[in-house]
Structures are given as structure tokens and as C-alpha cells.
Amino acid sequence: MKKKFAFLFASLFLLSACSAGPTGGSTSGSGSASGGNKQEGDTIKIGVNLELSGAVAAYGTAEKEGIDLAVEEINESGGILGKQIEIVSKDNKSDNNESATVAANLTTNDKVVAMIGPATSGATKAALPNVTKAQVPLVTPSGTDDAITVSSDKVQGFAFRSCFQDSFQGTILAKYAADNLDAKKAIILGDNSSDYANGLSAAFKDSYNGEIVLEENFTEGDKDFQAVLTKIKNADFDVLFIPGYYTEAGLIIKQARELGIDQPIIGADGFGDEKMVQTAGVENVSDVYYTGHFSTKAPANDKVEPFVEAFKAKYSKEPSAFNALAYDAVYMIKQAIEDQDSADSTAIAEGLSALKNFQGVTGEITMDKNHNPEKSAVVLGLTEGKETSADTVNP
């Protein structure tokens, strides 16, 4: 999710893998890659570049919780290759330029061998040139923009994710609208300032078998949607698709329901924060559906229950998808290090590229040739703000 998640993005040319990188380069096998940062001393330094303050701090804060739980578990169990994980965490303040600076500091000054985050697509893309230059792998838990891992038809050698990408979400939502909601006519109300929303809209339109009767836009930070919602209310449609984040989505849902728009509303993983329901009001959040990466109602495997119990014991609350995705990101890096028998950054990238049948709490993950995890999705249904359905959808 992206700012996966909705800011004005600087135009950045994403560097492709360097000659010693894990794709299209000259690495020679497990633990033998040259370049990048080397593991030194008694710890394995992993950087965290997250939105811990600012507009989408809810995502970054949730992911930091998942990271901290995973690291605590791993270190208490003896670490990785006998070494403890050392987390170096920095706040990118929900700002793309700050994300790039954080990535440079973590890879150049702190010499981390891997980086988790950012949470949002825009901030992740802003960080990529610096991690690529340093040959340090980045795993974003929720950066879903397709261009994170593939840009200009080139695989980004040091970019990985634990989540599925936008094109997959858009396709799943289009099929869900048609098949599960029997929606023959759809309206799209999307955030035109967000790469995340634009990618979702494009994928939805490419896959939807029904008619798109209207396509309207808003901009991140908007508060009053009465005019566009009045136009939508007067249209003939079966489902309203809102590709955007919880901040605006909550307001749109609230104002739509209060205006008398009672058709189903669908969205992507940007809906997946309790603040969306708080903003909309529980009485307005029924017949609302969104793609999720994790649900306790549709457990992916037998790792889910222990994760939920451990999370509740540490934080006294149920885990969210963002908690789970970040938790998986840590264990993916652990698996890559163990597979390569090395915690050097280029070896970790090799291990992530070759990850197969990894059992995460968000599902079984095999990394495809484009550095995207092949995994299932869950479409969650909300009634009065509570999750009341969870339909697993396999790729």
C-alpha cells in the first residue's frame, strides 16, 4: 500500500540493478556475491525506514510493531546464524524526500545489510535509487505499486515485497465485484495524486467485465466530497470503487452513506486501518469490501494462531494486515540469510530472489521472477465496521 499511500511524488528514475546485483548481474552463488554492505561483528544490522509520523503514520507504526515482535522472537531463539538482529530505525515522516534521505543514511552511514520499509509506494520508490546504489535489498511490507519491482521493463534488483502488487488487487476487486456482488455497472472515485490509486484504477478497468459508468477523482487531503457524491448518487450503478487510503476513504464513505448512497463500496488494502472505520463511523461501514493480505477469519496456515497469540500478548490487541506483512518481511530476510549462509547484503538479495514455499503468516510465498510474492489474497467484508466475511482468492 504506497507514500504507497498518496502524496505528490517527485519524478524519480529508478536505477536498475548494478552489475554485481542479484538480477542480470555477475553474482556467482550462495554467499559469494561481491559489493554491497558486509555483516560485521556480533549483530546483523537491519534498517527500518517507515512512516512513523505524518499523514500515514498508522501504517508505519503498525509495521514497526510487527517488526519488533519478529525480531524479539528471533533473538530470543538464538538469532540468525548465531548472531542477534540489531534494528536501526528511522522515521521518514510520511515524506518521499525524507524517505530517500533515510535510505541513504541507513545504507551508507549505518551500513545495514537489509532494509524493511517504507510502507507506502511513493516513499518506497523514492528510497530505491539509494538502496540500489548501495546494493542493499529493500523489502516493503505494503508498497504495492507494480513499478517498485519492475520499472521500464527492468526488474529492480534490490526491491522486494511481502505484499501482493496493485495489478493483482485491481484484478481481484474487478472479479469480486462482478462475481460476488453481481455488479454490472461500476463507478470509480480515485485519488488522482497517488500512484497507488492510479495503478489500482488501471488494473480494475482492464479486468472488469461490466460497464464503468463514471470515473471521478479527488486529491489527497480533500475533505468535502459532497459535489462529486451528489453526481454519483444520480447515476445508475451497482458498486462504487474507491482506490485510495483510509484518510480520504473514511470521509467518502461517511458522506456517501449520509447522502443516501447505499450500494456496495469496494477498495484495496489502503482501507485496512481501524482509523478508516473511526472516520466513517461504524454505522456507515456496512456492505464495504476490500482486499487484505491477512485475516484471522481466513488463516493461511498453522503459523497464524501462534502469531496472533504472541501479538496479543505483546500489544493487547488483534494484529492487522500491516502488522502481519512486516512480521513476514523480517522472517523472509531471516530465511534468505540462512539459505545463503551469509548476512552480506548482496547474498541476502540473492536469497530473497530465490525464496520458495516460504510459510508466512500472510500465506505461502514464492518469489517470482519480478520479485513479487506469489500468494493468495483475502477480500474482507465489513458490517457496522466489523469484519464479517473473508473470502480467500488464489492467484
Your description of this structure?
With 395 residues, this protein is an alpha/beta fold. It folds into two domains: 43-164 and 299-375, Response regulator (Rossmann fold), CATH 3.40.50; 167-292, 3-Layer(aba) Sandwich (Rossmann fold). It has eleven helices and 17 strands. It has helices spanning 57-76, 96-109, 121-134, 166-179, 195-207, 226-233, 246-258, 274-280, 304-315, 321-340, 345-353; strands at residues 43-50, 84-91, 114-116, 138-140, 150-151, 154-155, 159-161, 185-191, 211-218, 239-241, 265-267, 288-292, 358-360, 363-367, 373-374, 377-383, 386-393. A seven-stranded mixed β-sheet has the order 9-8-10-11-12-16-17, covered by helices on one side. Strands 2-1-3-4-7 form a five-stranded parallel β-sheet, sandwiched between helices. It is globular and about 65 Å long. It starts with 42 loop residues before the first strand and ends with a strand. Residues 2-21 and 23-33 have low confidence and may be disordered.
